[in-house]
Design goal:
binds D-xylitol-5-phosphate; 220 residues; globular; 8 strands; single chain; binds zinc ion; 8 helices; eight-stranded parallel sheet; alpha/beta
Length: 220
């Protein structure tokens, strides 16, 4: 089993010091940078657009993992690709022509992902396994950082892991929302490839310690 990767979510960083925050997690060994885009419509909150993404692109080599929580994802694919996104997840609940949208992301040279809300069944993936690079399983209802992990999502992951192994072993499983050291062990055992963590990383002044705890590594 390969080492789980960790994607700190900038939603939880000190935005007044965003450059320092990005550099701190990169120096501490983060694997990706998760970028939560909210439109005040698909979710109740508003966050960042392609402008901040492009600015962050200038100061880090980390892959930028863009999570679009928006109603009009199709209109934002090109702007985020131009802003330097390496990966873009769209919500199955928000996109009407999922096949077309995923193809569009890939044509832009970006790895496409599908995000699923906690209440969305995994069956919506049935026809798109060959098109995706990753599945972003939400373990909170999207819109805010710092929420509690919804335990029922573990059952969903327990079904999704074997299905992924059978149908598309190269597709990465990503979990997002309320991830912390206390639940990371079970997520790793369930075959999750990437843990998105906002509060658990940026809420700890020692980012190296936070990343190690999520990976289940010893710290000195
Ligand atoms: C929720 C976002 C998550 C969230 C993660 O809508 O998609 O990425 O900010 O933050 P924590 O780890 O604090 O739940
Ligand atoms: Zn997210």
């Amino acid at each position: 089993m390969s080492r789980v990767r960790v994607a700190p979510s900038l939603l939880a960083c000190d935005l007044a010091r965003v450059a320092d925050e990005v550099r701190s997690v990169e120096a501490a060994g983060a694997d990706l940078l998760h970028f939560d885009v909210m439109d005040g419509h698909f979710v109740p909150n508003l966050t960042f657009g392609p402008g901040l993404c492009a600015a962050v692109r200038q100061i880090t080599k980390l892959p930028l993992d863009v999570h679009l929580m928006v109603s009009n994802a199709d209109e934002l694919l090109e702007p985020f690709a131009q802003a330097g996104a390496n990966r873009i997840a769209v919500h199955a609940e928000a996109v009407v022509h999922l096949n077309r949208t995923l193809d569009h992301v890939r044509a832009l040279g970006v790895t496409p992902g599908v995000a699923l809300n906690p209440g969305t069944p995994v069956g919506v993936l049935d026809e798109v396994w060959p098109l995706v690079g990753f599945i972003l399983v939400m373990s909170v209802n999207p819109g805010f950082g710092g929420q509690h992990f919804i335990p029922g999502v573990l059952d969903k992951l327990a079904r999704l892991g074997p299905e992924r192994d059978r149908r598309a072993p190269a597709v990465e499983l990503v979990v997002d929302g309320g991830v912390e050291a206390a639940n990371a062990a079970v997520l790793r055992r369930l075959g999750v490839d990437i843990l998105v963590a906002g509060t658990a990383v940026f809420g700890d002044s020692d980012r190296g310690r936070a990343l190690a705890a999520l990976r289940g590594e010893e710290t000195r």
